Amino acid sequence: MKSMKTELFGTFSMVARCERTGELGVCVSTAVPAVGSIVPHAELDVAAIATQATSNVMYGIKGLQLIKLGLSPSSALDALLREDEEREVRQVIMIDKDGKTAAFTGGETVEWKGHLTGRNYATAGNMLVGSQVIEAMAKTFDSTEGPLEERLMKALEAGQNAGGDKRGRVSAALLVMKRLEADSPRPWVDLRVDENPDPVAELRRIYEVFKVRYLSGKKV
Predict the structure, then answer these.
(1) Which structural domain, as residue segments, surrounds residue 169?
(2) Is residue 123 situated within a structural domain?
(3) Residue range 138-163: average pLDDT?
(4) CA 172 to CA 38: how far, in whole Å?
(5) 219 in any annotated domain
(6) Cβ atoms within 10 A of the Cβ of 187, count?
(7) Euclidean distance between CA atoms 151 and 18, whole angstroms
(8) Which of 19, 70, 169, 208 counts the highest number of beta carbons within 10 A?
(9) Res. 166 pLDDT band, cuts 50 70 90
(10) In Å, how far are 51, 76, 82, 117, 220 from 86, measured between CA atoms?
């Protein structure tokens, strides 16, 4: 697999599915800029993917293509890992439209590192303060009701409140594919914060503004 890598050590993320609507999304935060342009990938009726650590965006691009062709997330991820000589520095999580998940944390990613999968989600992190970050994200997602974007936002906040990236805070992003206009494929929630001392809090502020303007039924 052609390498298109960006170092995103110190990242915590979640991919998730709404069981009621089938919507798919990703939330993520890290200690370097532009996380929203690298880590999250999603396509309605296909899958959501997060690629991090020494991130290679081809895991997102090709992963969606393979799942769209009918592969399960685990089969798609296995295929991508087999052709990647640098797989041990990767961290990838996937969920498809049916809620099937796959996750991989390479042995050469930086401690603390690991991943968890559960009903309608997968979460992962590397260079974190500890396992409590993704454990808090999983627990919060499981215990939160409401639209997928709200559940992901709360999960991201839980991860940050549990300590997050041990290097600090810089960027965050929220991506959710929604059906709001005649099966439009556009990401209806695609919010990003860069170069901010508290990016998750700033993402929440922007999300609340966006929610009133675009998700409340008001016309743009």
Answers:
(1) 5-214
(2) yes
(3) 96
(4) 11
(5) no
(6) 19
(7) 9
(8) 169
(9) low
(10) 13, 17, 10, 23, 45
Residue 144: inside a domain: yes
pLDDT at residue 220, as a whole number: 45
Here the CATH number for the domain that contains residue 191 is 3.60.20.10
Q: What is the 3-state secondary structure (H, E, C) of 69-95?
A: CCCCHHHHHHHHHHCCCCHHHEEEEEE
> Tens digits of per-residue pLDDT, 59-116?
999 999 999 999 999 999 999 999 999 999 999 999 999 999 999 999 999 999 999 9
Tally of structural domains, the chain = 1
Spatial CA neighbour of 38 closest among 65, 17, 11, 16: 11
One-letter identity of residue 207: Y
Q: Give the C-alpha separation, 72 to 129, whole Å.
A: 32
Spatial neighbors of 86 by CB under 8 A, at least 6 apart, are 3, 5, 54, 56
At 111, list the tokens.
């401690």
pTM (global) more than 0.90: yes
- Once rounded to an integer, what is the mean pLDDT over residues 125-146? 95
Residue 220 lies in a domain: no
